[in-house]
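User: structure tokens for this one?
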Amino acid sequence: MKKYKSSIIVGIIFIIIWEGLARYIDAAYILPSPSSILEKIWILRKELFLVHLPATLLVTFIGLTISIVLGVALAVAMNLSENIQKAIYPIVVVTQTIPITTLAPIFVLWFGYSIWSKVLATVLMTFFPITINVYDGLRSTKREMEELLMTYGASKMDIFIKLKLPSAMPYFFSALKITVSLSMIGAAISEWLGAQSGLGYFSKRMMTQLDGAAVFAPIVILSFITIILVAIISILENKIIKWRNE
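Assistant:
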């Protein structure tokens, strides 16, 4: 807890300033106060937590799982073959130059309002950090260490498992922390542009009613869940990569 003491203090100060500024402006449809947002979450808790939150989390976790598998597979393939790296790397970079807001409506045309249009948008937004970070992690091993293992008779598979994979793990977890937040954003954006449920859809619906507190409510919920998921990933990271703390 002491580790996050400064962050907690800054967060409390920010909320106090926000509350005071919102009360001073006195225009809830523009800037609702934190207290009014929490009150709205409580009032609409059944709809938010039983209908829309599960829909968003389902899109998030399916998209995140696909991104992890796809990203790691592409990173390993590029590390194993220079020809694959030259063919795939530019394509991976190009996918990030296209705004997701322009592609999401196309995905809706292809898949309708099914979950897969939103999953595809989420994957497109999240697989890049995993691919690039894991690839950089696999390349971070020193050539001298590889040559040393080869002199002891290690095969390419031995070098990959015992040297490259452990070296890439910190990069993987760093990418995972980034991707968790991006997956939430991707799911919410895709729901905003075309969906029948989800926190993004809920926020868009409330915006048409000029209900500022209800528009902010999904943002607060997603932020809180993201913080929890990143904390869980950090705990797993410390458990798995014990050698880094030694």
